[in-house]
Structure formats: C-alpha cells, structure tokens
Amino acid sequence: MNDSSASGTLVETRRGIGRIPPHSDEAEISVLGGMLLEETAVDRAMEILVDDDFYHPAHRRIFDAIVSLRDQGFAPDVLAVREELVRKGHLAEVGGEDYLARIIEIVPTAANLSYHARIVLDTAVKRRLIAVGTDLVQEAFESSQESDDLLNAAEHRIFSLSEKRFKKSFVPMNQLLHGTLRELESLSTRSEHMTGAPSGFKDLDDITAGFQLGDLVVIAGRPSLGKTSLALNIAAHAGIAKELPVAIFSLEMSTEQLVQRFISTEAFVSLRTLRTGRASGEEWKRVADACDRLRRAAIYIDDSAMLSALEMRAKARRLKQQRDIGLVIVDYMQLMESGRRSENRQQEVSEISRSLKALAKELNIPVLALSQLNRAPENRSEQEPRLADLRESGAIEQDADLVLFLHREKSNEAADGNAQVVKVIIGKNRNGPTDAIRLVFHGEAMRFENHDPYHRNP
C-alpha cells in the first residue's frame, strides 16, 4: 500500500483532531483476500460492508471492483479484478498487480471473512462517529439554530449511524411466532395450467398462469388500499399451501407487525380483536390452528430499515443458497436506497427497479415489489390508475414484467357488508393479456378472497 493513498483519508477523516482515525489494515486485507479467494464470500461481505467502510482508498477501489464484477455475474478472481481496475483506470492507484498478489499471499482462506468484516464495519462506524461529533461541535459553536433543532439533527445523525451498524438479517417464522403469540395472549389475560408461483387467486392465476421465474412483479396503489395485505396473502399461500420458501423484505413494518397480520389473515380474525385481547374461544382456536400452519411455513422476514439494493441482493443470494427460496417480496420500493450515488430520487428509484429485475433474473425466481402511486389518479375524472402513475420513476414501468394496480371503485361493497370489492387491474403483462379482476377484501382481517358476484362471500 503506498502511503499517498492513505494520506487523503487521514486528512479527510481527522477533521482537525490530530490523531489517526480508527482502522484495521489487517482486517481490510483479510476481507478483500477472502473475496478474491471464494465467490460466495463476496455475498457475505456485501451483506455487511459497502465501499465507504474501508479506510484506505485503495481498498475501497478493490472492493468496488469486486462488487462490480459480482453484480455483472462474473467470478471476481485476481485476474478479473485486475482487468476491472484497468478498465476503470484505478490499477496504479491501488498499488498495481503486485498489491493484489500480496493480498492473496497474505490471506490463505475466507473462513473468517465475516469476523474480519465486522471489524472493518466497527472501525468505519467509529470514524463516522468522530466525523459527526466534530461537525456537531462546530455547529454548536457557529450555528444560529435553536438548541432543540441542533439536538434533533444530532439525534437523527446518530440514529442513522446506529441503523447502519446494527443491520438485521432474516428470522425464521417459527422463532417469531412464539414471542408474537405470547404478546397476543397477554392482551387477553399448484394447478396443472400453472407455470409460475400461484397467487392463490383463481381469476388472477387464470390470466397470468402464476408469477413466472425471473419476473419482476409490481403491486401498486394509493395508501390504505391493501397492498401489504395482498402481498402477505400471496406469501401465506405460497408458504403454506404450496410449501414454497418465501423471503420478505419489510422496510416499513417490523417483524412483529407482519406476524400479527399473518395470524389475522390466516385465522380470519380481526387484527383489532387480537390486539385488544377480545378474541372469543372459537377465534382463539382458529388462531392456534393458523399458528400451526404458519410454523411449518418456510417464510423468512427481514425488517432492516434503510436497506440498499446491493444489500438486499446479497441477502437474497445467501438465502437462495441456504433455503432455496422461490419468491421474494419487497415492501416497498420507495423506501429502499440504491446504494449508489445518484443525482436525484428519480434516478435512484430507477437504479432500485433495475436491481430488483436483475435479482429476479439472477436467482430465477419471481420478485414481487410493492410500489406507491402518485396523486395523478385523484385529479382525473377517470380515476383508474395507469402505468404513468407509478411514483418517482418511469423505469418501474419498463423493468416490470407484470404490474397489478389496486383500485377501489365507488360502488364497492360486497355481499358481506364488512367486506369491500377491490379491482385488480393488470396494467402490464409481458407474457400475456392485460385485463382486470375483482377480489373481496376483508380489511379487518387483512384478508383477500376470490370474488363471486353471484354468491355471498363468507
């Protein structure tokens, strides 16, 4: 490592403190060496680290080259990384191929990569904490803002560091159910024509033949129309009825909230009833039966906030290797970060959309992503949503293979007065026709059912 590459980091990070910032050369080299030795180690590292976590600029460049190769589907061995650095004009900056060879020589195995990656992350968080603390001191001396405003800003910045430091991962449903059930109790003192993963709704599956392998499926709608409920209904059908392992990335709700919703919809018991502890004996029996079914389902939930597209792809790859997941659900796209520097939010959402499509194609499974709509339908006489209404990016329309819009019509009461009829508009279907179907939504129990216009829905 030449000294000039490290000096820039020293000047940048010292912030006038006059001491060398926390870092570990050995841990950084061990991580990079492991990534060069073993392709699966790249995914383990990407779950924990981003390029800015490395202290030395040369190490950042090498990490970025490895991730870039992995993102393109290439094995990042020494030769490939060298060529990628040459292509980007960074080979001399990192110390040439001699330095790459030295890394491989020093690191014999990738066995301890996760341990060393945690050390790299720990020192990176300390450096960021130093930088934030120094900025806060300067702002307190020089700013004309009220102290409450400064405290709020400081709290937000420290919390953001904490979120990045303590990243969560998947928790199996059977581990989540025990705590959720205990909390709820304390309140009371595939068809032959199917070629893809079925949604569980006959009319929809008749049109789509299921969610196809490698497809990006987008469920879009305005707030409170039941997007998350529909996604959880699909997940429950896949995980329970079809025994298909499902991964859920929940960027909006906690695992506890999702499990409560799973129980509510599967037991057909009002979520409000569960939360207030007023379930009847018959309802508690249905809850117990629902939990038995959910306990056997291979549903994995990750409720990490501020998750980037790169982190999500790394986590999904690992779970695919470990559990052979057949469906990924993302709730929801606009809460994700691209993990790359973008000029504006629209460009960032475009990066996220492309990354989700690439994930579906790479793992050869359907990826179901929830998306918000803009307010345009509310300002039109014809309020049914269109592809142009997808919020923040036209790239979603381009990347998606199947787009489902949820729309509630003015006359939407089902035969059961407690339910509503929701129109599901197939706005795009790359592999088939566009059309519209109707489902019955029991909002209190977060449950969708097939719509039968001639009979009373239960």
Say how many strands there are: 10
Q: Name the average pLDDT.
A: 85
Label the overall shape: globular
Poorly predicted tracts of residues = 2-16
Q: What is the CATH first-level class name of the largest domain?
A: Alpha Beta
Strand content: 5-15%
The SS-based structural class is alpha/beta
The CATH architecture assignment of the largest domain turns out to be 3-Layer(aba) Sandwich
- Please tally the helical runs, counting DSSP H or I stretches of 4 or more residues: 17
CATH superfamily of the largest domain, by name, is: P-loop containing nucleotide triphosphate hydrolases
Strand order of the largest sheet: 1-4-3-5-6-2-7-8-9-10
CATH topology of the largest domain: Rossmann fold
Distance between the termini: 70 Å
Radius of gyration: 25 Å
